[in-house]
Structure formats: structure tokens, C-alpha cells
Amino acid sequence: MLRLLSIELDKIKRNKAAKVITIVYCLLITAISLIASYEFDFAGVNFRIADQGIFNFPFIWHFNAYMAAWLKIFFAIVIVSIVANEYSYGTLKQNLIDGLSKKEFVASKFLAVLLFSFISTVFLFIVSMTLGLFFSDFMEIGIIFSDMEYLFGYFIKLVTFFSFCMFLAIWIKRSAFALGFLGVWQVFEGILYIVFSYLKNVHEINLIDSVYNFLPLNAMSDLIVEPITRLGGVQTLANQVGESFDKSYNVPALAIFVCLAWTSLFVYWSYVILKRRDL
To answer: What does the pLDDT look like over 230-251, one tens digit per residue?
Structure first.
């Protein structure tokens, strides 16, 4: 395993685009946090988003994990380009000639997926902890380290998404087309949701719970639901207008199971494609 990881790390070090995108990803996460903590002057009123409680422990774990997950496409570009470059530059064929098996090749790419997911999760933890220590109104140890499940959900979400990207890159072999297919699949799931919602509302046929919730991108989104309606101010405003938010904000066990199942399938399908393909 260490040998495979060292091989992959050596390739990543030589990939300038991977370095640049990784730095941009980290800067964007930091920028979101800095913007939220910046004090705006709006119509003569000083306003700072951080004062609305988004950096309070333990809410910050939920908020930052949700926001950072939107930036996962940057690491996805790295994963896709690393795999696609194996075909473009012929390094895959050379690795196989040098004795690396196809199973080891897929394993090395999946190790890269785990590495990027782990690094991103650790960086998110550091940024969130720093912001929380500066802005949170609650500093009890028990409160600080509660709701850490959102970091776990974030990690699972990245692993599943990057595994999907790895599979597409191995299957399609071209970065642009692989990312394009990813966008098409997102649209496809969106259309299915519209169709299933129509069937549920008009014909009382519920395919959302039985089918749609098990699709890969939707399962990933179910891991970390939007956090804004958890804020006390939003809850109070909703109550004043006679509305309420009856939803669970936990990381659902079913979504974790579905994502892990999809991850296993993406890795397995990647190996099957590579095994059957004449390189």
C-alpha cells in the first residue's frame, strides 16, 4: 500500500495543475470564512455574517462542511486529470510493463482519492476550529467537539464523489468528456426528481424514497443537508410567519451506507473496465 501511495504521490508532485488547483481549493475555503467574518457597512448599519451565529460551536461544523462540499469540483478536476493523463502520456501502459498490475493501478488511484479526501477534511477541521475559537460564543469542550459527524459525512461525501470521478476518467479516458458526463448526470438526476415529484403529487406513486434517494449524487447531497434553517434567527422568523422546519439535520446512516456502496461499485467497475480493456 505504501509503495502504491508513493508512486501516486510522485505523479501528483510532477503535476503542476494538481498543485495549483489544490492551493486554489484551500484558498477558497479560507476566503469563504474570511468573507463571513468581514464587517460590511450596509445603509449605514455595520453588519457581519459571523455575528449571526454561523461560527458558533457546534453549528460551525455543519455550516463549513456544507459550504466546503460545494468546492469539491476542484479536487474532482485533479482526480480526473491525473487518471486521464495516464492514457494521454502512456504512463499507464508503461506502469503495466514495469510490473504494476491493473488491480494495483486502480488501488493506487483510490489511495489518491482517500488522500485528497483526508487532506481536505483535515484542512476543514483546522479552519473551522480556528474560526470557532475566535468567534464562537460557546467554548465548553463538550460543545466544541459535538456534531463532529459532519466532518465524517464530509469525508464520505468526498470519497464517493472522487471515486465516481475516477471511474468516469478510467471509462471515458478524456478529462473534458469525463467532467462533461458528470454534468450531464447531474442534469439527469435533476430531471428524474422532477418526474418523480410529478408522479408522487399527481398519481401518488412514490419513487423518490424507493429510487431517487439511492442515486449517487443525491445520496451524497443527503449526507449534509442545508444548515441555514437551523439558525435561531431563521427559526424565530419562520415561527412568526406561521412556518416551521420539520426536518432532520443529522448525517443519515442510510445515506452513508448508500455512498459506501456506490464507492465500492465505482472502484470495482473501474477495475473491470481496465481489466477488459486492451491497452
So the answer is: 876 666 666 676 666 677 889 9
**Local structure of residue 53 (DSSP, 8 states):** T
Residue located via cell numbers 488511484: 109
Residue-wise pLDDT for 28-46, tens only, equals 877 776 766 666 555 565 6
- The model carries a pTM of 0.91
What is residue 45's three-state secondary structure? Answer: strand
125-178 residue pLDDT tens: 999 998 888 888 888 999 999 989 999 999 999 999 999 999 999 999 888 899
**Rounded distance between C-alpha atoms, residue 259 and residue 215, angstroms:** 9
DSSP H helices, the chain, are 2-13, 16-37, 59-69, 72-88, 91-97, 102-135, 141-144, 149-172, 175-203, 216-223, 232-240, 253-276
Q: How many domains does the chain have?
A: 1
To which residue does cell 462533461 refer? Answer: 180
223 near 153, Cβ under 8 Å? Answer: yes
Distance CA 84, CA 168 (A): 10
**Helices 72-88 & 16-37, crossing angle to 10 degrees?**
180
Q: Which domain holds residue 41?
A: 2-276
Angle at 95 between CA 92 and CA 96, to 5 degrees: 90
Q: How far apart are CA 62 and CA 55, in angstroms?
A: 10
Q: How far is CA 92 from CA 19, 39, 83, 101, in A?
A: 21, 51, 9, 10
